[in-house]
Design brief:
The chain is α/β, with parallel strands linked by helices. It is built from nine helices and twelve strands.
Length: 275
Amino acid sequence: MEQSKDNRVIPMTSFSSGNGEAVADDVYYFTNQIVNVVMLGSPGEDWILIDCGMPKCGEEIIAAAEKRFGKDNPPKAIFLSHGHFDHVGGIVALINKWNVPVYAHPLEMPFITGKEEYPEPDSSVEGGLLAKLSSIYPHEPIDISGHVYNYPEDGSLPDIKKWRWIHAPGHSPGQVVFFRKIDRILIAADAFITVKQDSFYKVLIQKREVHGPPRYLTTDWQAAWDTVKKLRDLRPSIVVSGHGQYMKGATLRLGLKKLAENFDTLAIPSHGRFV
C-alpha cells in the first residue's frame, strides 16, 4: 500500500477541528482539520467508518474512534465517498491498524489503486484563499490494491442495514453519498457542502450555509448540478457533508432547494479550468 507520492501535511484548520458530534444515536461525525469523517453505529456495537480524513492524520482518527467505540473494536469496513486527498489522507495508517476491507465506486478505483491521478486542483478558479492555495493539495493516486472492493451494484452496503449508497458524480467521477430512508439522514460527501469551502474565514469559523461542491476540485459542473437536484428530491431531514457542520430541518431544505434551482449562479464559478 502507498499513500500518494505528493502526500503532505496541509496546514489548515477550523474551530471544529478535533471535535465530534452525534446527530443520531448511531450517526457521529468527527472534524479532522477541515473535513468530516463519519462513524455509523452506536458505541459498544459494530460500526462503519466513512472516509479517512486529511493527510498524515490517521492516528488522530484512530484516537477519535477508540474514544467513541473503545479500543480493540475496529470498524467492520471503511466506506469511501471518493478518493480526493482530504478523504483518504489517513487510509494506509487505518488499514495497517485495523486490517478491514475498503469499499468504493468502480469509477474511483483508478485513483485509489495507483493507476491514474486526479486533475490538478484549479487555483485559477473564481473563489477565496483556499481556492488560490489549491495548487499545494495532493492529487496523485494512492494505492490500496488488494484491500478495496466495489460497492454492491444494487445500492446496498456490506455489514450495515437500512443505509444505501447513491452515485453522486460531478465533484469526482465515482463520488457516492449515503442515505437512510427511515429518518432521511444523508451523508452528502462533497456533492454539496455546508460551508463556503474556498473561503478561509468561513472554513475557520464553520458558518453553516448550503453551498455547491468545492470549486477547485469539481471537474464536471453539469453532473454536479444534476446530483444536487437528485439529492434535493430525497428531502433529507439531516445532512452531514464532507465539509462544514451538520444541518437539519427547514434551513437545510430551503438552502438545498435554492441551490438546486440556482446552481448556475450560486455554485458554478464564473471562470476556471473546469468551467
